[in-house]
Amino acid sequence: MDIYNKFASIYDELMMDFNYEDWFNYIEDIFKKYNKTPRKIIEMACGTGNLSYYLARKGYNLTCFDLSENMLSQAYGKLRKFKNVKLIKQNMIDFNFKESFDSIISICDSINYITRKEDLLQTFKNVWNHLEDDGIFIFDINSFYKLKYIIGNNTFVEDREDVFYTWQNYYDENKNICEFYLTFFFSEDGEIYERFDEEHKERAYKLDEIVELLKKAGFRDVDYFQAFQFEKPVEKTERINFVAIK
């Protein structure tokens, strides 16, 4: 099911606070730190192609996939001028390409959307199978602390010029799943507002759970940092970046 329905059309506006060029630069710093010079890259759950744009502009041979046709449609508008990009509809859990890659990347807590541990293990195995030997896997998660204590059981409201939304969250202690219920009022002309609703779920994974699953999938080296830097996470770190080497 395409959980990003009408949401895809306003996603970029809502994500204006995210600097994707800085995110791209951080990934480049990771490549340098681990002495990697990838040519072929997969971007999993590429969304509307914000990071993809910078990767494509740098000249990487890029295969981007997402489960949402609506998000891919937005990405196509940004990436169609690049000859080094493929856009494909696939799922993180069972994606399948008949080639291997130097690096696989997933950003913006897409991994948290995989709410069953067995599915996450399958995803990591699939990534491992699609990487060249010594290939690098880079991804981030919303931390357990953030989903349980910052987002969980809280309501957020934002009023922008042409978008008003409420974001209600409920945290399931037994399943460690945070459910997001979003209601949007969106206007294209500033006069008539259309309402639409979205429901999302993210699982809160503890750091050692992720490491265990990566090792079980076959990765030989696993590192983790506070996102956008190279310091180790602390108790209240909200976003954790992982680097795994095949």
UniProtKB/TrEMBL annotation:
Instruction: Show where the Methyltransferase domain sits.
Output: 41-135
InterPro entries found in the cross-reference section? Methyltransf_25, SAM-dependent_MTases_sf
Write out the entry's keywords from A to Z: Methyltransferase, Transferase
> What is the protein's name according to its record?
Class I SAM-dependent methyltransferase
Source superkingdom: Bacteria
Q: Does the keyword Isomerase apply?
A: no
An annotated GO BP: methylation
Q: Which GO terms describe its molecular function?
A: methyltransferase activity
Source species, please? Answer: Tissierella carlieri
